[in-house]
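Just curious. Protein, please.
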Amino acid sequence: MLSAPEDWTVETVRAASERVHKGEETAATFKVTVPPSATAPGRITGTVSYGDTTLSDARPVTLAAPTLAFGLKETSFTPGQTREVTVTFANKATRPLISTTKLSLAVPQGWTATPGDITEEGLKPGESRTVTWRLTAPASGLGQLTASAAWTVPAGGGTASAGTRVAVIPETADAVLALDLGSVTSPVAPGYRRLASTDAFDATRGYGWVGAQPQARDRSGPDTLRTDFAQDQAARTLRITVPAGEHMIHFLTGDQDYANQSTIVREGNREIARLLEVTPPGVFTWLSGTVDGGATGHTVDLTFAAERDFWKINAIIVS
């Protein structure tokens, strides 16, 4: 016997044998139909009885549902920059969406996106639509970009959302501090200060490593800023002097020759930034967060760590 949630139908396609001798096997086949109104996962339970004994086994059943996916790979913007943001809405359910689907893009304060809400006619199972917004960054800012979709199906409906963080990376001329990480001999990008892997903290300078120092690498490309970086498998701590008030801080991470597996930045127990996915060789990502210098300014200890392989930091900007 096979049981299913209420309103689901179960038909016996082939019944099991009534008599099974020692060492033999028997099997039954059922057809389970999920009603169009179903919106939540269910559970099916198979039961077999012989004599005074009853055995059962239950398995969860998940329902395929529409999905939403971002097509924005580069999430860092220069002040005032405009980029196209694509979002793909796919009907992976077995039922058609019977009405228009409303697609929306919520942006952080100060950011703008055009056009506004977008509507798509009902999609058949397996169909998808890709829509595009033009996203413009403000002079500065950091926040969450969230795309959402709302749709209806017979006797029900649903929503889906997908999000990513976006940030404005300031020009170095406007930065409180801009550091190019590497070795004592690797090139330094214009507008940045050198932070070698052997530079211990110096109060007059306002930055440097405390405790064990990291490794340094130089890949001889693709440019002066991205060619070199600090890295290590173990956690290492950088101390910087932060002026009074809250400031945005940005970390460039990547490797021209190898995949970037994991990079995490913390201040004490507070996580400031994290690389959310493995990036392939030659892909560089800006991670952003905030640091606070309090009422009068003070030093902040930034700890770089990795959950696997090496953490990697090419540059740091405090704005």
